[in-house]
Amino acid sequence: MNFKLLTVLAWRNLWRHPRRTIIMLTAIALGVWMMLFTAAFMQGMMEQQVQDTISNLTGHVQIHHPGYRDDPAIENSMKIAQGDIHSVLQDADVKQMSRRIRLPAVIASERETGGITLVGIDPGGEEGLSFIANAITEGRYLESTGDQGIIIGKALAEKLETRLGKRIVVMSQDSGNEVADRGFRIVGIYRAELQGTELAYAFTGLETAQGMLKMGEQISEISLISHQREELDTLANRLRVRFPNFEVMTWKELLPLLIAAVELYDAILIFWYLIIFIAMSFGLVNTLLMAVFERTREIGLFQALGMKPTFIILQILVESLILLLIGLAIGNLLAWLTVLSLSGGINLAAFAEGMEWVQMGSLLIPLLYMEDVITSNLLVIVLGLFASLYPAVRAARAVPVDAITRN
Hints:
Layout: H1 3-14, H2 18-55, E1 61-64, H3 82-89, E2 94-108, E3 113-121, H4 123-126, E4 136-139, E5 149-153, H5 154-160, E6 167-173, E7 179-190, H6 195-200, E8 201-205, H7 206-212, E9 221-226, H8 233-242, E10 247-250, H9 251-254, H10 256-294, H11 296-304, H12 309-341, E11 346-347, H13 352-357, E12 363-364, H14 370-396, H15 400-405
Parallel strand pairs: 3-8, 5-7
Antiparallel strand pairs: 1-9, 1-10, 2-3, 2-6, 2-9, 4-7, 5-8, 6-7, 11-12
Helix pairs in contact: 1-12, 2-10, 2-12, 2-14, 10-14, 12-14
């Protein structure tokens, strides 16, 4: 079979009616663009949600006392030797690590009170691990684990009717089950992607929190990040062997609802691809059927001269493939240019309250992954050729005498 002749005939047949071909190419290109832009929008939304959650004191892996996650009380703190902590930092897969005190507390200004989570941190360890260091908008960041200042969120400052430089009192339960309280001066105010984060957390030095709560060298958790977010099982297993008496969990184990949301988004994307393709396939099948009806006599003559039905089917399929490939190329280019033009992000500040409900910030950056491009392109080609089989088979079944004599 002469495939070069097959391709030439298919190309010429397509451009017998340029307007119809251009309309179909436009429909395919717009459909592919919509597939990929929607995928980029949703992937950006998912990635932002994951990144925000990981940077919001989660990290890639956490180490806790076995009972801490069920009851984050001071009784469920843990003590880890400095040598073991140093060995974690020396692990080749660990990029950054931080120790924390994280316990419920009450914060009071001269006007208002509220419930918070008091977090004692190692300021150097948090840089590059959590959002705190880069979120300060007023004042300064904590300087050391012994820093006696406190950092609170903008929303919490407004709720307490206080401001930078003012003193507040923090109360919690110490290791002897007594009420511990301490006055702090506000040295910094931070802004977070979510207002709920600003209301929930207040940060001070790790040693300062340990001293206030009479914890000695005990801590609530260790949080760390790895060089590879998705390749954590090996690292987690090594840490479980190193700390058999503590609970070691990856971010996927800590955030099952987030993982379920990501899987739901992936399923919605495939469903969306199918909806767009079904709409596109109607136009494709209609275009090829019109081409077959217009060339009925021509197809009958070819058959009378000895052209096999297989050749006719392949000719129609090649026409479809050429349409799909050109449409895909244009659609992919449009999608890439659109995502590139939005690399600075889409400002959704007008919907900030709604975004807060789904734990997302107001700036969304679309992300176009190669696997999404490959999936959508293969889907269009495979299903497009499958849809083209009907007009192709119909053309091949034409009876030569009836086709030639047809008016």
